[in-house]
Write the structure tokens for this entry.
Amino acid sequence: MIHKPGKPHDGRLAWVSDHTQAAVFDQPLPLTLGGVLPAVVCGYETWGTLNVAGDNAVLICHALSGDAHAARHGVDDAPGWWDALIGPGKAIDTDRFFVVCSNVLGGCRGTTGPGSLNPVTGLPWGADFPAITLADMVAVQHRLMQRLGIGRWRAVVGGSLGGHQALNWATAHPDCVGHCVALATSPRLTSQALAFDVIGRNAIQTDPQFHGGQYYDQPKVAQPDTGLAIARMLGHITYLSSEAMEAKFDVDRNRPRDIATAFEKRFSVGSYLAHQGEKFTQRFDANSYVAITLAMDRFDMGRGREALAQALSPAGVAGGVESFLVVSFSTDWLFPPRQSRDVVNALAHLNHPVTYAEITSPGGHDAFLLPPEIAQYGPLIAAKLGRVTRDPPRLRPTDTPVLELIPAGASVLDLGCGSGRLLAELRRRGHERLVGVEVAQPKIIAAAARGLDVIDYDLNRGLPAFADDQFDVVVLSATLQSVDELVHLFREMLRVGRRVVISFANFAHKALREDYAKNGRSPRSDRAGGAYDHPWHSTPNRRFPSIVDVLSLVEECRATLHEAVYLDSVSGRRVAAEDDPNLNADLAVVVVSE
Amino acid sequence: MIHKPGKPHDGRLAWVSDHTQAAVFDQPLPLTLGGVLPAVVCGYETWGTLNVAGDNAVLICHALSGDAHAARHGVDDAPGWWDALIGPGKAIDTDRFFVVCSNVLGGCRGTTGPGSLNPVTGLPWGADFPAITLADMVAVQHRLMQRLGIGRWRAVVGGSLGGHQALNWATAHPDCVGHCVALATSPRLTSQALAFDVIGRNAIQTDPQFHGGQYYDQPKVAQPDTGLAIARMLGHITYLSSEAMEAKFDVDRNRPRDIATAFEKRFSVGSYLAHQGEKFTQRFDANSYVAITLAMDRFDMGRGREALAQALSPAGVAGGVESFLVVSFSTDWLFPPRQSRDVVNALAHLNHPVTYAEITSPGGHDAFLLPPEIAQYGPLIAAKLGRVTRDPPRLRPTDTPVLELIPAGASVLDLGCGSGRLLAELRRRGHERLVGVEVAQPKIIAAAARGLDVIDYDLNRGLPAFADDQFDVVVLSATLQSVDELVHLFREMLRVGRRVVISFANFAHKALREDYAKNGRSPRSDRAGGAYDHPWHSTPNRRFPSIVDVLSLVEECRATLHEAVYLDSVSGRRVAAEDDPNLNADLAVVVVSE
């Protein structure tokens, strides 16, 4: 009596692609909130080939209104919603990986949902469909994984609600997840996002054609499409940034598209919303919308870092999740970057390997689906899947002394890690626990493409992501001059690292002093790796310390100075402590601790 | 046959305060979009006393769901929505001013709207109520003004839709407006805000109880309250910032209030929205909601600065609007600050006196109604109404030479004007066209409290608000060291001013040079008005130029140097050009032009 995808019991459930396959599970599925589904059908699609070891599989998790058709299966196939990411030679390379995408539990695109037949009654579940959670969605995917002979996903990848699924996989089945890739997502919805969902459901459930969810015996025109369309219109606004809407609708604001609709179409944005809303009712089920948004609204990894760290800690078990990749988008106000930062901070605190990038984009929440943004974050996913840059790092003059001052095998946090030259060299030398922090997006992407863990992070915020004494060594290399809240950062480094290694250019080198004293110009020098080779009016530097200045700060902060190396970058020679390094050295490296 | 406020024809229209008076206008009111209202009733309240000259009146314009009861009339009266702003001794001082607030046309709180009786049919207008605009709302207020014997408003003050009314007053009846005070408003809605309105109206108009707007003969339970409540819920989200919602609902997200409601109440935010939505239907009419939001959505002063400047230009006629005060709120995403900046930039371009402050607030759009924010912007309104600080400005060492270099009567733009010390002195000397630009909020408020026109503005953006050669003199006094995009600003100053006067501290003064050369420390000095008296790691300075550096920049930009004054700030003496001012002067003032 179980409904098979592709053989719908009525028109509403015919929304299945030609490529959708069905896995039928006859064992009852116990649900998190207490209900039981007597049996489950899971609709899914696959790309590529599972290898003999069964270890090249990647799971794609779709968002609220998505489906299993993530990518086209050939040139004649209908477009998929993530074609720019998934395919032969693409970031998720179907020539190398066996890619799986299944429709979510509760949906209406091939997997059991409120429109499926209840085997007990032989009628559609409707309002009797039991309450489900993200964990239940993942439990169905877990059954599918076993059915397909996959022991462990190389990666679980999803955006938005798909990101919630990826995070649930990582914590509920850490042994089954290689890399967890969570895009444009959050540990739980903001109260604002939750409120939008509430209103969408209110629109559906107060539609007089909703009949408490028992509307499947009605003809299409007597179903709750008005409420569903309004919910969808509302969703559409939240998926776009205000800037994107301005670009799309401001030019012809009073010239709506001439469409047939029961909704208002006075303004161009109104005709767009009416069209989107009505189109959606042709492919989606109101009960599914209610069931899935409720599952999303219930998803809750806790409030505050401690709760979040506790929720994420199962990912760290032996044989658990290898690493996380978290990506947010600057104009996403539905799943704002601060929520991704919360996840990243909790993971960093737990010593979980994690890479984080906040992609600058005008696209709002939908950015994770857009080709230009996929071109930005795609390489980060490819790197997690093993496609890494192997070119040797080009070291800078201070890098050698910095490297010498780091004990063999030490765990290292590199603040302002750039494209990862220092970390790549440390990895080459066998260091294992290495984390970089960087704020420039191209550098983050370059470092991540090397397979390094790098976190998008503004050093002026301090180091709240990291625990006391979390690293053997914290490095601040050639970065000090661009930090605003330097004293605060200095104290934070001493808190987080057992040792702190700081390399910096010496602003009191004689070349600069002479220039200034003689010429009375803001001094400039091509020494010190070019740190001071900028015109006064447009230098990126904000701070101009000498060696003596930095040593004084060490004293002021009551830190202990362990070592100091002074360099002449032109000759490459060291300057002895008795040779007035503040005058004769243009670079310095100091090692301090609390 | 005209409906009188306080004597409703049915329960729906009994929403009138005890203090609401009614002005009945029997002349037909021609409407902007072609219709005519045969007659109009205007409900309004007043506070204070109109003086004999009839020139102490202030008009308050309310927002979408507001009403004429802006403030309580006594201790026993019901609270008003702007009590913190309006009352005896408050920023809008009812001991000094005759304050008027009227209900808007199209509403349901005492002024003619869709629920009023159509005198032709004797039935409520309902769906036949003609389409109205902001200009029509203002036309009714204009009749009221004449009826009350007021020749010109001292100020027209409004937030949100009330701000639209204030802007319409300023352009449609410039001779009737002293000061235009526009808070949390815009030249037209963003496409995003427009989209929210569309969805709200769709919820109302697809409510099966709406009956095309002809529902007044139905009992309350058969009226379109479900749609109206959903529209209101949606509005509520847009009035709050995401941060404010988080603060309000995140702690007890899963503990909803136990209320009786037909709407979802699973989450605390849901029960709140349900309560707000249902409460609203007790005091508001669905047809009014549609009519007023449509008027707001049609309000459009044009796209782009040129169109906006053209729309605002009528305010500048002889005897027109004396000045504008524009205020926005940092977390207002419904009427974002950039829209207020557009208005301000257009006004500044037109040489209209305008003060602008962007108030830092977590409160979102509703911030304009909150007491802490009113405490911030209230003094700006009080200053426009004549309550200005009269303490003499305390001049700084360079101010005297700067003042001497400004020709008598010149128009002056002071960039980084601080609390307005220089501008206040210039005003004392009889200069008339004076504009300040400042980024620090307390300083903006202090300068505005002096009755100066000051614009909240980040100099790193250049000077797009201002036209070529708009000012006789542009001053950059003791500000240069904190500007990031200095070369860009320099060119912009040369474009906007016929002369540019720059005062700055000399970083190559011998005290600093000696310190640096001898001690090898980032130099520090208590000279030059304290500009260089900061530790290297936390100085607010970003740029450290010498006199020679600045003169070189003048050359690089191919600007003409007209005068240069060099000072020793300790002795107060001038340093002659032949006495090596780059070594001996700690302050300098230069006059340059393109």
